[in-house]
Amino acid sequence: MEAAGPADSVSPIRRILDISFLVLIGSLGFLQLPFNLFGFSLVATDVVFLLTGLLLLANLLIRKVKIVWQPIYWCFFAYLAALLCSALLSANVTESVKRFFEEAYLVCLSILVINVIDSSRLLRLSLFAWISGTSFAVVVGLLTIALFYFNPENTLLPYLTYHYGSVPVGNYPRVTATFVSASMFCNYLNVSLVIVLIANVTDVLNKYFTTALLLGILAVAAFTFSIGLGGIFLAFGGWIYMSRFDSSVVKKAALVFGGAVALFFLIISVFALTPYPNAEVWCKIPGTNLSLIPSARVLVWRDGFSTFIAHPINGIGLAQPVADVVFSNTEGSQSLLSDAHNTFLEVAAESGILGFAAIVSIVIFILRAWWKKFLHRPASNTIAFGLGLAFLCGFVYHGMTGSFEHARHLWVLIGMFIAAVRVETDES
Q: Cβ(194)–Cβ(417) under 8 Å?
């Protein structure tokens, strides 16, 4: 890593805050090993957040940091207000209120990031911290693949892999590594891939290390066998299109190819890759013995939409099951699917049209700010542009086929994007 700039004027207490904050960013790369505290399931990131929050408060009191107002806070407040209404009107108020505080914590993650990152130096260090966490997760992922093939009886494998779900059974592992599900791990790797690309053009990382890490991310992401892999192609296509390649043909071809593959993954998410008991047959493919049957996602989407229609204003309540689908996995086990497998449908079913409007307002706010970077060609390689692309792929695209509204790393990403826009505007 190259020097990001002098820090001689930073006070000791502010330096401690920065260190704690960077540890928080790095800890996003390993969300395994949760523990319970006062009824809440916590991971390392949550503990570091509490410490960082206290240090931020101490810096505020001695005026080493100041709270910066951002218009996106209105969207945050609307989102929390909608969730609170849903929680208070829920059939299970206790569980819903508990979930509300968990949701409020996620929003506070974004606000903390926005206010701690106040310079390009700390912004670049944040990228480095994220990449450090990613490197750890990728190494664990690669070791998991190696264990599966060379030491399949290893007792660690059940903690590092996921069941096949609706993916065809085969002689391969579905890697979760330091995460609890393959889809969530794929989502994190998708965001990390873009951040590594940003670090490459901003000289945060050594070029050789960047290449090795990108290859590692791609290898491990492939072994998640997640429908969200289309986001990887979308990220590469968008990044190449806005890069400094001289050939406009290459740029357009990359964007079209990346978008087409991403669309392909969305389309196949509708169909089951293998048959399952009592499946509804949509149609038979002429000349073959194959039939098109709905995927597990379609089944939960139906339930989720029905839940939303039944509770259109405030939803069924936070932490309440919006779907009730018992699905037979390809390896013979069964799973009870109770979430909507779609970020926006999940929020709508849990908190009604009010919550849906609020989460959409956050998305629109960020994408509008990102679009301005997109239109301003000289800014194509800025950190803010890259973080916006990561949000598009990780939150919006992945959100079409998975419920990622509770992903800590995505809320940190939102905060990093807003902070990057402010820093780059102030220092331009």
A: no
